[in-house]
Amino acid sequence: MFIPSIQGAAASTANAAPVTLPDSTTPIPPEQVRHLLFGTPSAIKSSIQHLHKLGYAEPNDWSRPLSTGRPNEVMAILTKRVGP
């Protein structure tokens, strides 16, 4: 089940300005997607580095690793603006 969130993560990609279509004066706001990584600290770091090498996101765009309360498990969050 998809539940939209009102709160944003602390980490995000570079600012994305609203896009204005040539035949319209109304800007279209960019949409956001949130990526969550769960795993060991080393697996999270490796995944973030891999996504960076692919050109998807800067490592500093991710949140700091957050404890999940499970032994040796953390999560990291990336909010990325996408859209028109």
Mean of pLDDT: 81
Instruction: State the helical fraction.
Output: 10-25%
By secondary-structure content and strand pairing, the structural class works out as: alpha+beta
Q: What about the largest sheet?
A: 3 strands, antiparallel
> Strand fraction band?
25-35%
Q: Please mark out the parts with pLDDT under 50 across 5 or more consecutive residues, or reply none.
A: 1-12
Total beta-strand segments: 5
Q: Please give the alpha-carbon distance between the first and last residues.
A: 25 Å
Shape: elongated
Number of helical segments? 1
Order of strands across the main sheet: 3-5-4
Oligomer: single chain
Rg, Å, rounded:
15 Å
Q: What letter string, H or E per element, gives the SSE order?
A: EEEHEE
Short description:
The protein has 84 residues and is of the alpha+beta class. The protein has a domain at 38-84. The protein is built from one helix and five strands; from the N terminus they run E-E-E-H-E-E.
Layout of secondary structure:
Elements: E1 19-20, E2 27-28, E3 31-39, H1 41-53, E4 66-67, E5 74-82
Antiparallel strand pairs: 1-2, 3-5, 4-5
Describe the structure.
The protein has about 80 residues and is α+β, with helices and mostly antiparallel strands. The chain has a domain at about 40-84. It is built from one helix and five strands, in the order βββαββ. The strands form two sheets. Strands 3-5-4 form a three-stranded antiparallel beta sheet. Strands 1-2 form a two-stranded antiparallel sheet. Strand 1 (about 20) and strand 2 (about 25-30) form a beta hairpin.
Write out key terms for the chains shown:
84 residues, alpha+beta, three-stranded antiparallel β-sheet, 29% strand, elongated, disordered N terminus
